[in-house]
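Supplementary notes for students who missed Thursday's class. We covered one full example, reproduced here. Read the sequence, then the structure, then the short commentary at the end.
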Amino acid sequence: MSATNPEQQAAADRARRIVAAVQSPATEAADHEIMADDGVRSGGLTFSQQDTSSGGSGRWIRVLILLVVLVAIVGGAGYAGWRALNHMGDDPGTSMMTHTVQRTDLLISITEDGNVESASNVDLKCQVAGGSSILWIIEDGATVNEDDELVRLDSAQLEDQINQQKITYEKARSAMVQADKDYQVAKISVDEYLEGIFVKELQDADAQITIALENQRSAQNTLEYSQRMFRKGYISSLDLESQQFAVQRAQLELDSAETARDVLTKYTKAKMMEDLKSNVETAKARMESEKAAFALEETRLKRLEEQLDQCVITAPQEGMVVYANEMGSRFRGSQAVTIEEGAIVRERQTIIRLPDLKKMQVKVNVHESKVEQMQPNVMRASIRILERDLQGTVTSVASQPESTSFFQASVKEYATVVRIDGEPKGLKPGMTAEVEILVADLKDAIALPVAVVVEQRGAFYCWVKTQEKVERRPLVLGHSNDQFVEVKDGVLEGEEVVLNPRAVVADARSGEDDAAGAEPTDAKEKFGEAPANLDTPAGGGPPSPGPGAGGDRPSGRRGGPGAGPDGGRGGGSGRGGFNPVDIFNSRDADGDGKLSGDEISGPMAEGLSEIDTNGDGEISLDEFQARMRSSRGGRGGRGRGDSGGRGGS
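Structure (token representation):
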């Protein structure tokens, strides 16, 4: 910083003299001399010997006046320092702190806090349907080996269910066996009829036909013999008729036997086969049904027996026992879960977490502004846990941000996992770790302190001190850490840059571009072209300008003469009826769209240099609106002024 100027030195001397006078009471004449001298220097404040009596009241009056003079002097010194600070930097000869640009090795890293956890974490859950209660559980934090018993759940209800299920299971097995036997009998019945009963009935039918045929032939022979005997007169006509009837009966019996055989082969066999086959299919369906029912009951019994086995939870691997306690949240409506003996656990609820202590990792949350720099399986990290320095590798980065509480809804952080190298001893899940992730190791790079860089309008600048002036330089930046930022272009090695330019350079402190470097904003470049199918007002064509829009006035003045309060809304009206355009029009007497000469008066004339940004000695409507927005904090116009820039360091 610059050396102490004469005004500040004189103010400090006066202050020391007054303080010495107050703290060390001297003679009446010495006090009067000090007060008279400082009264003249601080604006003509004097008093005589008669103003301070030798009594106690006079001394208190003198002390009060001394304090008032002291406050005035200190205020004057502060004002003088403020003016010196505001004008510092306009003259390159003014003393200011600078930094010499040089090449250096720059280590870029990201440091975050996280928690240690196991890379191989086994969750042991309650597998009992409907849940159960804990009868016994191993001590939290105990180290166990594979197959060690960890938890024993209540199994009384399961044992009752298993006994009941065994009864149902045996009934289902009995029904299945009976159905299978019935099916086998039905199949045998088909073969029995086809190869036995039907053959026998067919043979019986054939026998009846043979007998009837033989009876018919015998009766016919007897009839022929009887006829010869009748002609010779040996028998009577009655005997002959009787023999004729015997022949007819034998013929009827033969026809009946043949018909019975035809019915047996054509109809009875087919009917019996269909009936027997139907019995076979019915028996088969019943058998399948009973088998399915048996399988279902058997599955239920096995499931209950498996759940009974799940009532005793053993360790699948060696590790350290960690109870799966959960903290409740009144904002999310969840309740706390405590694992202990007698606690009721629901089905699929995690009871114990068994981390593998040989494979450990650290989970950290990286801010969204830095997550794009993360490269899994490439980046190395330095890990510090309880004064121990370890190393690791970034293994994964979440694709979605972590859920946050109501108070941190706007903070977006991504879970990043860093695997710890080797098999470190003595680490336990939940330990706090400080992780520094290496992003880049730059060699022989040009780097500047972060305080040197200022952001304006999305671009970055620094101020270089030359022999003639302080020059603003645009910068092309690279990586950065908490102290330095890499500069790819903009400054050269050996140049002097201003440290903390906002404190000593007016251009950097105002946050606005100077006239030489400012460029007008192109609306189409910033917002793009409007779609061709954009809806238009009724009647077609582009929207017509409203009153006072000034689109047809060659002078550029917005709003014609005598335009009412609604005229000239192009710049936007302020809140509560405040309209910068109306004020501008009221001052623009000649209606040329600019304020000049006598039209500029009062405070506007005193601040003309700040309002007239292009330095032409006149004030345009845009310059007037920009000034009004600046003085009103940006209200009443656009949300962000064209000349406004974002500050940064």
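Commentary. The longest helix spans residues 156-232. Residues 1 and 96 are 5 Å apart (CA to CA). If anything here is unclear, bring it to office hours.
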